[in-house]
Amino acid sequence: VSDSLFDLVLALGLFGAGAATLAARSLFGAVLGFVSTGMIATLAWVRLDAPDVALTEAAIGAAGTAVIILYVASRVSAGTAPPAPPPAALRALAALFSAAVAGLLAFALLHLPEPAPGLAAAVLTELPPTGLGNPVTAVLMAHRALDTLLESAVLVFAVFAIWSMAPDRRWGRAPGPAFASEANGPLAFLARALPPLGIVAGIYIAWVGADAPGGKFQGGAILAAMWVLPWIAGLVAPPLISDRPLRLAIAAGPLVFLAVGLAGMVFAGGFLAYPPALAKPLILLIETAMTVSVAAALACMIAGPPERRPLA
Amino acid sequence: VSGTALLAVAASGLVGLGLYGVLAQTSVLRKVIAFNLLSAGVFLVFGVVARRGAAAGLPADPVPHAMVITGLVVAFAATALALVLTLRLHQGTGAVSLAEEPPPRAPPEAP
């Protein structure tokens, strides 16, 4: 009974925080509502027995997304009046439509077939050949490796797209605006105190992903935060976007993944297949390269295109 | 009522809220936030389906979990791109919405 009560509180909290996000008067309030929704969703993921997703939701879905929204909101909202809302009739129609979609979805979810189909048993039988202990990592790196390969390519193209928003004459410069340096401010203190702990935590979470909740995305997100923090505090200048090591770091994950995948065609009988004896070392090699790439790509996405104009 | 059923209803509710925000709000940044609420709801639907697929001693089906982790990272990349587009729109025209007419003030200094 107490478990159900907890789920009821979570469900009400999710809906309430989501509604507060929409109803917030200020953009800042909306971002706060969104972070709250994300944090409650993190708890819901724990309740749904998905600790790997909970870590990703907390680091990337809630915190990371909120940081980039706040960062742009603080630069866009200054001095601009919010646009007028659409007519009431139109809003009522939108509300009706959204409620209908939500209602139908809930109805469908509550009337799914019993027993539920699933691939849990298949994943478990195919777990030993990968040498991994975490079934989610096995799905990401072996059973559905193609999804993960394509996703790692998406990150590279997202960075391309964001960099290409730079004015022509800023191309090749450091990403982001010119960050003000305040040598003794609280941000500078955080940027000095957090990275030693954060870097260790990030590498640890990426490493334990093979056998326990964690992995390259969660660890990479923490590493990205530790990399960006000294940039924003003005302590360290970001690398130029024309910098070859930076570009290599962003592309390393998909390149290594693709190389191992192609080698699989020759040595293991299929694209993205691993020779059984080498499965674990190859997966660790890809995970290492991808951790570096996720960290570099996320850091560049947070900083934005090269601008060099001072932060408003 | 089982806990999973409660979270299924809440996930559907988040989808509805996000959809309404995307449709009815005018500020682009508010639309981006609403879009992320919508995706949080969709991901939780995956979580509910995964929980129902518990079998063979695993508490949930790991395949939807892996898809959600992939989805979260792609959603972050899409959000980052949408935000940079919004910022450039604002820097170029002073607009914060996708209204038909640009606001009647002079554009700020060229980037």
Give a structural overview:
The complex is a heterodimer of chains A (about 300) and B (about 110). Chain A is built from 11 helices and 2 strands. Chain A is an all-alpha fold. In chain A, helix 1 runs antiparallel to helix 2 (about 25-45). The longest helix of chain A has 26 residues, at about 50-75. Chain A starts with a helix and ends with a strand. The mean pLDDT of chain A is about 90. Chain B is mainly α. Helix content of chain B is about 70%, strand content about 0%. Chain B contains 3 helices and no strands. At the A-B interface, helix 1, helix 2, helix 3, helix 4 and helix 5 of A face helix 1, helix 2 and helix 3 of B.
Q: Between the first and last Cα atoms of chain B, what is the distance in angstroms?
A: 57 Å
Structural class of chain B: mainly alpha
Q: Spell out the helices and strands of chain A N to C.
A: HHHHHHHEHHHHE
Mean pLDDT value of chain A: 90
Overall geometric form of chain A: globular
SSE topology string of chain B: HHH
Strand sequence of the main sheet of chain A, in spatial order?
1-2
Question: Largest inter-chain interface?
Answer: A-B, 101 and 85 residues
Q: Give the distance, in angstroms, between the N- and C-terminal Cα atoms of chain A.
A: 52 Å
Characterize the largest beta sheet of chain A: strand count, sense, and whether it forms a barrel. 2 strands, parallel
Residue windows where pLDDT falls under 50 for at least 5 positions of chain B: none
Number of strands of chain B: 0
Q: What's the total count of β strands of chain A? A: 2
What is the makeup of the main sheet of chain B? none
Give the % helix of chain A.
55-70%
Poorly predicted ranges of chain A (pLDDT <50, ≥5 residues)? Answer: none
> Total number of helical segments of chain A?
11
